[in-house]
Amino acid sequence: MKTKMDMFPSNAAKELHLQYQLNALYTLPELDRAIAGIENHLEAHRAEYHIKNIYSYFNEQGNAMTNILFEEKAVKDPVALTDAIRKGLPKVPVGEITFGFNDGGGGGGDDSIQLQLNGDSAVVLRDLATSVIPALQRIPQLRDVRTTEDNGNREMAVRVDRDKAKTYGFSATDVSQFVAIALRGMRLKDFHGGETPVPVWLRFNNTDAQSIDDLSDYKLRRPDGTAIPLLSVVDIGTRNAASVIERSARKTSLGIKASIAPGATKPEARKAIEAMMKTVQLPPAYTFSFGQSFNNDDEAGSTMLFNTLIALVLVYVVMCAMFESLIYPAAILTTFLFSIFGVFWLFWVTGTTFTIMASIGVLILMGVVVNNGIVMIVHINQLRHAGLDRRAALIQGAKDRLRPILMTMGTAILGMVPLCISNAGVGGGNLAYYPMARAIAGGLIFSTLVSLLILPTIYSLLDDASLWAKRIMRDAKARRWRPQTA
Prior knowledge:
This protein is 50% helix and 19% strand. With 486 residues, the chain is an alpha+beta fold. It folds into 3 domains: 8-110, 2-Layer Sandwich (Alpha-Beta Plaits); 154-240, Multidrug efflux transporter AcrB TolC docking domain, DN and DC subdomains; 296-481, Up-down Bundle (Multidrug efflux transporter AcrB transmembrane fold), CATH 1.20.1640.10.
């Protein structure tokens, strides 16, 4: 029996993000024409896709996306809708389109995950990403794998051939300075014609519109007065350039983003990614780590486990003070631990994923189960004080509490049924209530049997252990004070 766990699942479908992974740097009119074709297709299928609004954004830095806002409560199957939109969209010449859902409520409902590559060189990280992405695309739990940097940015790369430059009487520094002046200009001394100095720059004409063809026309003048083409000592080309270089823990970082495939969870995706990354030979001092979405799951799981343990300790302390015993509270808490089996049993039967809301349901379940156990133990102790032996008190106590427990559990479980079968969530967002309701219902179903059958058994075993411990202590005390014979 195995239950899926995902603290923050992505099952809402308020917004769909279409991110354009550009294959070059395009002008605004070119992007406008490409994205207009996507918008026209979506407009033509507005009713079929239950679209409420369409909004697109793009700029000259290579950022382009289209947001689709769906009609409230109209989307029943987000996965099927995404596949329909994906298959129907026309191809765009500017690049590829990736998809991602968001709950639209700012509650962290983005369905994407991220793998971070960390190292010293951004160039090496890009090469690593190029080799890792195809392997990630073959993982069935992932789809829409892409890097987080802007692929549309390109830069001019000028490399000086030192040997050729030396042949013509130039050093690499001489050539680099000339290219720098040609592209950026050179700062001269400020002009002091008044109170405020005026900065002075020496620039070539139209330096803001330089191209590779312009540089190919430039010439370098040798010490003897002859001129040679710039291209005779340099190699000029273009390459991808990141508009932003991310740093993490004093290392350069490059993110690889992906969406969770239908039916998969973040823990399953993480396990598959870790298995794949073990086969990748990373250079020395280069590492990988997981993004914030995985960290959020880990932190939430640790926090809820800590909260549950603290709640158990506090409940145990209160019951110890009430019963003036360490044995009876331990018997009651074991019934809660057994009821956890009911939670995972119902989740396994219904195929429900264990989420942060299910963890909250377990905390609520603790209060209900412990309350029934307290009432049962109090009634059994009252019967023993009235003169019944332990066995008779246990049997009579279970009989007396049968109807009240069935009524309490039955009404509580029936009250959870509407939430168990609905998709209502926190603020209408991504965190649905039904995992919490099913956790409570499953635990209550199992705790009904526990309270009536297992609790009396545990009570009897712990009571025997208590009597045995008292007898051992009494015998030890008697031997200690027994008078010595000559």
